[in-house]
Amino acid sequence: MASPLLKLLIVVVVGAACSSAGAAASYRQPLCYSWRFNVEVNNVRDWTVVPEACESYVASYMSGDAYQEDSREALQQALSFAYLVFNSSSSASSPAFSYNAWVLDIDETSLSNAPYYAEHRFGVEAYNDTLFNAWISEAAAPALPATLNLFNTLKNLGFSVFFLTGRSEDKRNATIANLLNAGYSGWEGLILRQSEDAGVTAVLYKSGKRKALEDLGYFIVGNVGDQWSDLSGYSVGSRVFKLPNPMYYVA
Questions:
Q1: Which CATH superfamily is domain 45-242 in?
Q2: Which CA distances in Å does 188 have to 75, 185, 212, 214?
Q3: pTM attached to this predicted model
């Protein structure tokens, strides 16, 4: 049987170890917050995985209220802008108003892949194309609530809404099924990568597709995405709205 002194030493050592681990975790929190902040404002670029030390921080952010609140605030600004455009338009009640368009990204914008990334360490694991494509085929990603609300409001106001995604054409059926399962319906168009778009950067690919909409006579009022590559380049729209995504980076 351990002596009282030995028991006391065990308690002290274990307590010190727990305190040290807790201090290390709390020390990492500000560093990971700063990393995420600089990711969101596009200071940190071309990163491939979430720093392992930030796994618990990113998991907590994506699974908690903060992610939803940040997304809701960003899209509240988009809603306010949509109403401003609608209320100031002389053609708001005419069919011509439908040529006012909004462009929405899909992954981490209209649909949330957080359930998938929760199984893959919230971006600490390197991206696996085979596994992610299998997830897409399930058509099970939930809607980001704030985006679904924006989508329905835009549609009710008479804007045309286009989905512009980096997914390839062979994912069309699964993507349509997922959008419908998540509550989206009545979009004007769904634009996916074609074979000729293979190897084209996201910025150039999405810029070209937006320019094609303009060539059809659409005026891009708003553009919503989780990556700066969704919102950069040319034909970006009157205003862009950036949603948070600390799980992966698309150039």
A1: HAD superfamily/HAD-like (3.40.50.1000)
A2: 20, 9, 14, 14
A3: 0.89
